[in-house]
Amino acid sequence: MLNSAKPTPGVISAEPEPIKLDWPATALLIIDMQRDFMEPGGFGETLGNDVSQLARAVKPIGALLKAARDTGMLVIHTREGHLPDLSDAPPAKVERGAPSLRIGDPGPMGRILIRGEAGHDIIPELYPLDSEVVIDKPGKGAFYATELTDVLEKYGIENLLVCGVTTEVCVNTTVREANDRGYRCVVISDGCASYFPEFHEMGLKMIKAQGGIFGWVADSAAVLEAMKVSTT
Ligand code: TIU
């Protein structure tokens, strides 16, 4: 109905405009919900950040993860990190800035941002099931130097519900990569977080500006509402 605040069944109330997704062609993409970013003693904190800023995204992502599992939606988790010999870590990334510990240095959760270490693992609240896809990525974007394109093609995915951390870094980079590859991205506003609240706000604005130049933005409640109607 025109001018109605009530969402149309099955349509996500999103900005800059509502969007209806073909659910079997849609995946939930959870970016880098790792201890290294979320907990004290990890990579995020070594960079000087207040990691408590990211906790707010956990519950909304948990609700979406449950809905995806209940409805059989493809779930993809990503983890940023490097091989123990750092052969996939560019010196420009390792050497930059003045962190308290650099990538590869020993920290309280093992070596910082190294695959297989405790800090590199996904937080227990959102831990992947064996049946779910886990993509290990060396960069900010989930497409760069990973098998993500092959996975999406294999499952016939055209749309991505994107959440995770941090909004303006790995989430934005991945959404931009996905947009250039033709995927529709709906970014979950309360399912993303940044160490800098103002970057979170601007990161979401950049996605939905100019008629949705990179994608759509919706909150988890709007997506859950649309999923409930469309998948039952
Ligand atoms: N530092 C920061 O905000 N983010 C990252 O380094 N990686 C991700 O966003 N995952």
Written overview of the protein:
There is one protein chain. The protein has helices at residues 35-38, 43-46, 58-71, 91-95, 148-154, 167-180, 197-212, 220-230, and strands at residues 11-12, 19-20, 26-31, 74-80, 106-107, 110-111, 133-137, 159-165, 184-193, 216-218. The protein is globular, with a radius of gyration of 17 Å. Strand 9, helix 7 and strand 10 form a beta-alpha-beta unit. The strands form three sheets. It has a six-stranded parallel beta sheet with strand order 7-4-3-8-9-10, sandwiched between helices. The model has no long low-confidence stretch (mean pLDDT 96). The longest helix is centred in the C-terminal third of the chain and has 16 residues, at 197-212. The protein contains eight helices and ten strands. The chain has a single domain, classed as Rossmann fold, CATH 3.40.50.850. The chain binds tricarbonodiimidic diamide. Tricarbonodiimidic diamide (TIU) binds next to helix 6. It comes from Bradyrhizobium sacchari. This is Nicotinamidase-related amidase. InterPro entries: Isochorismatase-like_dom (IPR000868), Isochorismatase-like_hydrls (IPR050272), Isochorismatase-like_sf (IPR036380). Residues 26-218 form the Isochorismatase-like domain.
